[in-house]
Please model this.
Amino acid sequence: MSLRDETPQPGGRGADLKRRLAAGETVLAPGVYDAFTALIAERAGFDALYLSGGAVAYTSLGRSDVGLTTAKEAVDTLWRITDRVSTPVIVDGDTGFGNALNAQRTVRDFERAGAAMIQLEDQSFPKRCGHLADKTLVPSAEMCGKLHAALDARRSSETLILARTDAIAVEGFDAAMDRAEAYLQCGVDALFVEAVNTTEQMDIVCKRFGERIPLLANMVEGGKTPVRSVEELRRRGYRIVIFPGGTARFVAHGLQRYYASLLANGTTEPMWPQMLTFDQLNELIGTPELLALTSRYA
Model:
């Protein structure tokens, strides 16, 4: 055993995800935002994890998902996650943080940091959450250039590239379909049509693309898209289902209650039934194994 059980190799973690998608499986990926949440999700048994730009902004900056985070902040967060868990991570590369050359650097950095799949979107910079209003887009041809650049930049074909379009809210549903078609023709590994408004639109997307390429469904509680179970989405034709922001919202709600109780009572005791004990937390994070490793090197 060592602190790093295995060094992430380019494409190494994407191989399992690629195999599952090629076999027609539907992968459920919960949102994570640091090594701690990733570890808990991995222990729960998920086959993939999702690191969103929004989650990095919420938890690193305490700010909204409006393009404030940098590529380095996202890469550093990803490094800490892949250093701790071996589950494949789908990572949000936003707009590639600039033009096609910036997108290439983003892909190289994310791949070195252990990303299994890298998502790039067609918003202009600064971008914003796909379920917020007043987004703007780059031309379809410019996005295709970014995608070609991203595909050329990766060292392994097992590092998957996911193309996202936000065109429904800006140009309309038909235009979003045209953009998705153009991005598929670039040779990407998966498609993400963001913020579909109805289950009928879901079915149209899946009917047009589902037999040709894995599709991602984004489940945002309170967002534009109807939230459905992974099983229903699988039946409709989706192969990747993410719940990217639910983790942060759940933690925020719990911490509001925890801090309010501590302030009101002057002690954490009322919250003990909802907390891990000291020993339970150490068991979760592997303290006994870490202490054994310390003894080995003493």
Remarks:
- Residues 246-265 form the longest helix (20 residues).
- Residues 161 and 188 are 6 Å apart (CA to CA).
